[in-house]
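Homework help thread (please don't just give me the answer)

Our assignment gives two proteins as sequence + structure token strings and asks us to describe the second one. The first is just a warm-up. Here they are:
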Amino acid sequence: LATAGLLIPLNCLLFGLGVLVDRRAGAMRELLVAPIQRSAIVFGNLLAALTVTALQIAVLVAAAAVRGASFVTSGHVLWFLGAAVLLVVVMYSLAEVLSIRLGNPEEYTGSLPVFAIVPFFFAGSLYPITSLPHWLGDAAKVLPLTHALALFRFGLTGQGAQALHNIWGMTNTTAMALLSLAVLAVYAGVALVGAVRLFTRTCTS
């Protein structure tokens, strides 16, 4: 499950690299003069990122099951699915913003470790956030990936209660899961709105 926390950000940010290249030397110019809303381009790219990422996660989970991992098969898995979708929205929206703000593929590629890899090590993927220095643990609680990983564990294995408790310090597991899902939803909403507005303003200026 920790692997999914690395796969989703990397995959979405690599999609953003494709968007940047497409804007410079691909079909984006034709799309911009087509009689469609500018926001439809962003949503279309997001849908593509969601589809490809969903297939990759399905393969990842299937491979883990073949190797002997056991997963929850009840409606509990909806926590995992909701968190995964929202994390894709967050990371692809960030990728869209970076593809606009950064001038060339080289700069964009150089930013990938900062946004996709570094947070992975502080989000509870390899060790609990309670083992971090106090200030770093507090910073980790703000990361969307921290909430996503806790929900991944809770949704697929039913054993993410401790990870959720490390974030919220509560005893009601469902309430903590809802709070983490709400955090991801806020991140996703803000990031997507920002990406659409930036793309629309940039393409019409």
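The one we have to describe:
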Amino acid sequence: MQGLFGGEHVVLRALDMSSGSVDFGVISGIDEAGAAHLATPEAAELAMPLFKKAVPGTAFLLQQLIGHQAYERDAFYNEIMRPVNGYHGLGAYAMGAEACFDIAICRPRASAAFHETDAGQLQALLPHLSTVIALQRRLRGLNERASNLSGLLDRVDEGVIVTDATGRVISLNALASGMVAEADGLDLEGGRIRAATPAATQSLRAAIGAVAVPQGVE
């Protein structure tokens, strides 16, 4: 985004719809101190009146929301954007069922202002941003559930291996990891569970496949 639009910096925030808090954020083109300043609740509070003037799901130019003279007197510019050399702005925010985010792309005062063509280009990218953010959120949820499952299995006093219907290992607890590492009758082959002999492996995988198929489904 920074290179595509010739921005000095870019701020992208994914928001939690239930709480309104920042789920995760990316700030590019600003040093660590400036990024920390932009990520404060005070910065979000000062930016809110401007974002409220925008239409959700529609890319906008900053000058469409506030005139240059008014902007130069605005607290958001003087306290937040001016210290990080931001002046001209291009942005958007979306509030979808699976992705809620806002993005701001800025250039310094000495640079050329953004134009309607830039807004149109950003508008075309918004659906793709929504898809990526929704996917990232789902993957993070899966990772968190997998981590919780691993923690739970580690509390079990016996070795536990969770596989899919083909015998491919999804998760295993610490005791099972030790058993597999010893390769004493139980091992992994291409990520799938393997017994001591080919015949035993075939029987084990067949048993796993049988219990993995829901009753009544062939």
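TA reply:
I won't write it for you, but here's a hint about the kind of observation we're looking for: The CA atoms of residues 165 and 212 lie 5 Å apart.
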